[in-house]
Amino acid sequence: MLGLGTLFRAVKGLLARPLEDTGLLPTRYYVREILDALDHDNIGEAVRLLRKAKGALVDRARLDLARQQIIFRCRVLRERHAKHIRYLEGTIKAYKKNRKLPWRWLRKDPAERVGYYEKTLELEQQAQNLLEQYEMELKDMLTR
Amino acid sequence: MKEQKLSLPGALFGALAGLGADIAIRELTGFEVVSGILEIIGAGFGLLRIDKRIYDSTVRLLKGMDVQPDDDYQHILRRIDELTFDLPELRESFLKLMQAGVRAKHA
After folding, report:
1. Is there a contact between A27 and A55 (Cβ–Cβ < 8 Å)?
2. Residue to test with chain A: of B61, B66, B94, most A Cβ within 10 A
3. Which chain B positions have a beta carbon within 8 Å of A63's beta carbon?
4. CA-nearest residue of chain A to B87?
5. Residues B84-106 pLDDT 10s
6. Which residue, of A133, B69, B81, B83, has the greatest Cβ tally within 10 A?
7. Looking at beta carbons, which residues of chain B come within 8 Å of A25?
8. CB-based contact A69:B58 (threshold 8 Å)
9. Rounded-to-integer distance, Cα B27 and Cα B24, Å
């Protein structure tokens, strides 16, 4: 049975989505969408919606709390990435050190695995930089 | 009963007059009438529970912190302090949640 929720989602998909970019929709709509994006760790979408929201007087405090929540999640995720980066750097370093030992010369080179580690490290660093950029942008929004 | 007729030109004229009035009010007084009405409609349509939604999100964020099962209360508080040093409102919300959790545990 079609419920009100389904109807609301259909109306939202048809009307609200195209109007989102205009910034005309109520601030509460943006806050709700920001929190939904945050639940899925979609920081980029949350920041995009925050940029669009004008922050009407009655809901400005709520919008600012949503902004703070995004910053907090950015920090938690950055810490997680930093932990992964430390582990990967340690693993790659240990591999490079061990490779130089004479009794390892004849052992088959697990170059493929190291390549995988290096690629993962690069991706982790990119993610960390992106989160840092978002955090800086969100901090600047405080003064607008 | 007198039959009512709908007039398309009349509706268009009404829409244009409304748009004109909105622009004139915005230009003369700075008030955004349409945005204000949309705010009220938005508050009316299911968005009234926004505070509950913010609360749920705050709880989820707190649970999403990388905390070890054997971390004590003070350690978690220190971590919250570090991560929210410039986010006063969120810090306050977290502390209230933590205190409520501790009270519930002792009760």
Report:
1. yes
2. B61
3. none
4. A68
5. 999 999 999 999 988 888 888 78
6. B83
7. 38, 42
8. yes
9. 5
Where along chain A do its domains lie?
4-141
B26 vs A106, which has greater pLDDT? B26
Which two tokens mark B59? 């709880």
Residue with tokens 């049975």: A1
**How crowded is the C-beta side of A83, counted as CA atoms within 13 Å?**
7
Of B42, B61, B90, the CB nearest to A28: B42
Residue spans of the domains in chain B: they are 8-45, 48-106
Tokens 């929201």 -> residue: A53
Tell me whether A87 touches chain B (CB under 8 Å).
no
The ipTM is: 0.76
- Mean pLDDT for the stretch of residues A27-54: 90
Best CA proximity match to A50, nearest among A142, A132, A120: A142
Strands (E), chain A: none
Identify the three-state secondary structure at position A116: helix
Q: What is the pLDDT of residue A114?
A: 84
DSSP symbol at A107: S
**Cβ neighbours for A32, distance < 8 A, ≥ 6 positions apart:** B47, B50, B53
Write the single-letter amino acid at A61.
Answer: A
pLDDT at A143: 45
Q: What is the model's pLDDT at position A1?
A: 46
